[in-house]
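Glycerate kinase structure dump, as promised
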Amino acid sequence: MKVVSVIDSFKGCATSEELNQAVLSGLPNEVWQEKRNIPIADGGEGTMDSIYAAIGGKWVLVESKDPLGNSIEGNYLITSFKDKKVAIIEAAVFIGLHLLYPTDETVRKATSYGLGLVVKDALERQLDEIYVTLGGSATSDGGLGMLEALGMSSTDNIEGNPLLRSTDVAFEPSLQLFANTELFAIADVTNPYTGENGFAEIFGPQKGANADTVNEMEYRARQLAEKIKEQYGVDLAQFEGAGAAGGLGGAMVLLGGTIIAGFPAVAEMIGLEDHFQDADLIFTGEGKIDEQTEQGKVPFGVAKLAQKYHVPVIALCGSRTQDIGAMDQLMLGAFSIHLGPVSWQEALDKKQTLTSVRTVAHGLSRIFLRSN
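structure tokens r here:
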């Protein structure tokens, strides 16, 4: 029999590959003759690693700037996909929330300039396509920092969040850069650029912004969106995901880029469907499964894809809510890995987590086998 494990990382605890291996190590080889460990991500943390594990490529080490302007080094991936030479850049590597302690002050200082430097480096390599994953960013600058690194000019030279400095900007020559290279923004959210579900209102507080800063960012973002619509005929309100990563999605639309959903994009790149066609059982999961999981997260995407081939799916998670929406109808069940009450510190302990995953997967596989 064939089993496939395709679990998203438990953030701050264990990687996708580690979780998959824990599942597979708990299943007896004499029953499961074919085991597949498929690292996965939905456009956030771990996306490059997932793609590299599937199709390989070359890591490129670059110097850049973190959200607060400090020097930082990081890798991006150059690989081949559909006979095209492409770059995969994770925004969070260079401007990730994990690189600072979020406060209102950091929101007012943080800029996506460092990401722009990396995109510029990839552009200079004359690639066919550039993919930028937008999950996990620390910035809420409307994408202006990235555009600044690509040639946008401003009437001031003040450091900090460019959205809060001035919206009197000139985007040329940045708008001409992608004439020969396609740009894709991989987003795991569909939030608009402005409004009650826009990047300022929804993600600003998560990144440390107080109410006054949120209101100021929203006001400036509306001004900027109106300017873009009037001068360039691009209505950011029409693009789902324009508010991803503090407005980076919208900035990439302005550059002529396309916003694409995270899970389908990654699944296609790694050839996930090929692994499902003759599988007998699939394990998936993520740190928390709730009613929001069906909004493009890995477990939902896996379950929908598995449904195409009538393969049963079991989801594992750190925690779950009673109501998990449509997920309940798509899989055998979603199960917490914890064997009893645990503290937050214990829940994030990698060794304990992987041991629990192995134990729970072993028990669930036995139930599955006895019911078939």
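The longest strand covers residues 71-81.
lmk if u need the other ones
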